[in-house]
Amino acid sequence: MTTTTAEVLTEVRGQVGCITLNRPRALNALSLDMVRALMAALLAWQKDDKVLAVAIRGNGREGPFGAFCAGGDIRFLHAAGKDGNPQLEDFFTEEYALNHLIHNFGKPYIAFMDGIVMGGGMGISQGGTQRIVTERTKMAMPETIIGLFPDVGGGYFLSRCPGRVGEWLALTGDTIGPADAIAFGLADGHLPAAQQEAVWEGLGARDFADGAAVEQWVASHFTDPGPVQVTTRSEIDRYFALDSATAIVQALEGASGEWEQQTAAALRKRSPLMLHVVLEQIRRARSMGLADDLRMERDMVRHCFYLRPGQSETVEGIRALAVDKDHSPKWNPARVEDVDPQLVQAFFQSPWPAHAHPLAALD
Question: What number is the average pLDDT over the span 290-315?
Fold first, then answer.
């Protein structure tokens, strides 16, 4: 049986539930309707003994694959944040609940992470049991560019990267490729892009004894991703272990290396406030379980839009990048040195009592 909405296609083929994100013109950016369609399909398949595993991919502009998911629908977030649309609250609550379900699904969840995998696309793949990358994979959590933070469980999975890679990826929003994704624990195997269709079709056409057999068959197609591209691990671990965002930026600026200067220049373009918030997020999350991390991030995202009425860094960041496209956000404060520590700590104070938290039920 095939279920079709405009933006999500779901079908059980053989013993595998198959999901295709079908919003190629927007690089499969997640809408609230897409989050709801994904949640409904997964809840049904979780209880269906005939479904041994789930596979998810994105449609590109020329057909299946080529683009996984570029994140959440930031134009919707901008409009909803400006207008006070209550669906903004629904979007984040339901998206984070979906992320939690994927991490705790209990059956193989196979994500074909071809092309762009960013933001919300990481949220619907990082909880998978087989996270497949290709030579075309471009992976990032670039939220500080729009005055947000790496949410969708980003605190949880980035903080568990080796060394200080999590802090580096979270603060800079830098993009990595397939070999680095595997090396940093953000992917499980590499599959040449040209072989994805055959593996996808095979999943629906073969008979499997159990979920483990599905995963073993997929893994049998993995190939060498080639050498890692990030050659600055020692520098990342040194600078991004410093005590504060200000210390990191200033130390990078004080160094003479090309990588240090480029990284410092990139950080100077990010929201100064959110650099401090994000560093705190990653370091808190390192000792948290997933459910607690998602509750913390739900608190944080509420504050991103409403802590300072009329002064949302996120609304301003999206405006500059995607609405007016002037690429000149008016960050407040404008410099990382001028951020009030009390303002940073306010992001980690929940606006709800524990029993009334929108994600209270997650465990």
Answer: 96
Instruction: Read off the amino acid at residue 44.
Output: A
**Phi/psi-derived region of residue 12, left when phi > 0, alpha when psi is between -120 and 50, beta in every other case:** beta
CA distance 110 to 95: 19
pLDDT recorded at residue 4: 52
Rounded CA Rg of the chain: 20
CATH code (residue 262): 3.90.226.10
- In sequence order, which residues have a C-beta less than 8 Å from that of residue 155 and are 6 or more positions away? 281, 282, 284, 285, 288, 293, 296, 297
Q: Which active-site residues does the annotation give?
A: 72, 120, 143, 151
- CA–CA separation, 266 and 250 (whole Å): 13
Please list, residue by residue across 319-342, b when 16 or more beta carbons sit within 10 angstroms of its beta carbon and e when fewer do: bbbeeeeeeebebbeeebeebeee
**Cα–Cα distance between 244 and 227 in angstroms, integer?**
32
pLDDT tens string 184-225 = 999 999 999 999 999 999 999 999 999 999 999 999 999 999
Contact 298, 92 (CB under 8 A): yes
Residue 355 backbone dihedrals phi, psi, to 5 degrees: -70, -20
33 assigned to some structural domain? yes
Give the domain extent around 58: 1-137+177-229
Structural domains of the chain, count = 2
Same-domain check for residues 348 and 210: no
pLDDT digits (tens, 9 = 90+) for 30-50: 999 999 999 999 999 999 999
Question: Side-chain half-sphere of 325: how many Cα atoms within 13 Å?
Answer: 2
Place of tokens 């013109």: 25
Per-residue pLDDT at 84: 87
pLDDT in tens, 304-317: 999 999 899 999 99
How far is C-alpha 161 from the chain's CA centre? 14
Calpha distance 293→85 (Å, rounded) = 25
